[in-house]
Structures are given as C-alpha cells and as structure tokens.
Please model this.
Amino acid sequence: MSGNRAESHRDGAAHPLLEIACDESGSDGENLTGGNTDVFAHAGVSLSEAAAAATVREIRDRIRSPAEEYKANHLLREKHRAVLEWLLAPRGPIHGRARVHLMEKTFFVVDRTLGLLLDDTAEAAALFRAGRPAFGEAGWRAFLLAANRLLRVRQDEDPVDAFYGTVDTLLRERPGTDAASVLGRLAATRHRAVAYRDGLRAGPPLIPLLNPLLPAIVRTAALWSRDGLPVHLVHDRQNMLTPDRIAWIEGTARRAGTGLAGLRLVVARDDARVQVADFLAGIARKIASDELNGRGDPALTALLRPYVDPGSVWGDARSGALLADPVAG
Model:
C-alpha cells in the first residue's frame, strides 16, 4: 500500500513511518440521540502531499464551484455524482489508500451504558436489536434518551432517577423478553450510576464516555499499524484534542500494542491530505446514514464498502451487512 512515509529515529535507528491524515464528520458532542446526525465517521488516508493536492485539484476542476473551501457536500450533490463515483471507484485516487471507521450513535450509547453499568458490552448488540421490537418505538426511544442523559457530562436534573424510572416502566410493561432480561440486570446497578454521577460533579473527566472522536482515533491508528510499521497521525485541529487527551490517545494505543508514533494537529485548509480525509468522512457518514434509514443508494454503498472498517461500532444488522466488506480485515 503506497502512502506518505517518513523516518522514525526514536530509538536511534531509522524505521519507516507511515503518516496518516485524518478528519471526522458527524460530531454533535455528547448529544448522540437527538443531534443533527445519527452516524459518526472518522477517516484516515495514506496519500503523499503531492497526490492529495492533485486529488483536490482534480475535484475542483471537475466541480468548478466558486467556493474557497470544498467540503463533502459539494461531492454529494446529485449534479456531481460522477465526481463522487470517480473518487471512490476502484481505479480512483484513494482506493486502497483510505479507511473509514463508522459509529452508529445510538448503538454507541447502548454499548457505553452496558460497559459502565455492567462492565460487559457482550449483550449490547442483542439488546440494541431486540429493544425496539420488545418495547415499541416510543419505549425504546425513551430508553435511549434516558441512557444518553445518564452518561453525558452535562449536569441534568435527576438523570439517575430518570434512567431507572424508564427501565422500571419498560420492565413492568413488557416483561419476559430477552431485552427485558438485560434491562432487569441494569435495574440492579443504581449504585454504579450514582457513583458515576458523583464523579462528574467532582469535575469533568478527561475522556467523556460519550465522545466518539477519541476512541475512533485510537482505532484508526490500529487499522493502519497492522503491518508492524509505526504510524504517525496528522489530524484536523479540534478543541477536543487537548495535549492531555492526545497523551491519553497515545498511551491507550501503546498499551494495546498499536504502533502509534504520535499525533500532530494541523489546519485542514493547509494540508490537502486532511482535506481528502474530510471528503471521505463526510461522504461515508452520508452514505452510511442513508443506508441505516432505509434510503440507501446501492451503487454508492457498494463503492463505500471497501473503505469501511470491519471493526466499526454498528448495531443495525441489515445496514451493517450492506456496509461491511466481507474480505476486509
């Protein structure tokens, strides 16, 4: 796989260093159940600066918009469909040189809720897929909203009471299902929720449970370091990426055995590689969201499929099967 390679000299010897440019799309902070988007996407591209600049120039030449800064929505317009297909196509400029990690936001909430309260996310997918049929649209929506309120950092009035009141109501109204069995276990975890909220009152955590960006960056580093090469990430500047959080990302990756050599922040408009990552993240978020909501375009979904991280955080079985690449690893 070709890319932008530099040299690492941290131990006194030269090692190849793969530089990956990254950006995200779909960030709504911790409002994962009522924000503007239902999918979060984090893209990484392995392009030289020259190749990325040529790709951006080609997109500009084909679209011919007067906008100073191009974004994914330029390519997503129907009149520019041919440009979008060219970018993603097997013979296009980023094929084999880019990956995107997807997060279905409501599933991420369920996964994090079970992780916090049960120390186990093994049943997250089963609960997510059984919840709506078991509790109905309104009941399941109430659970998702209550879980989001419980986990987010922002202080709310009685999020613990609201969450366990919702759980108790659903258990009374719809007992006897597999989903109710998981909720029954959650009903006995109030002490964990109280301790979690008490901790938030003592001060905001370095790593908010519901922020998808930080774990997505760790995952992106893991995707690109599988061949044993150290990876350096170049990321669009984000307020969330403080020095302490970057240190957490690097430490988490290192403990997981990922060869993350470092993370550097840049201004996207000054780095064509990050601009290409921004295009892919926005495109992937829109295509995945359309598929999730039953209005997918089969041709675009097929073009996106080779880019999708098989470890994406995705709960919906139907759309997940369509987005997943069976040969990706």
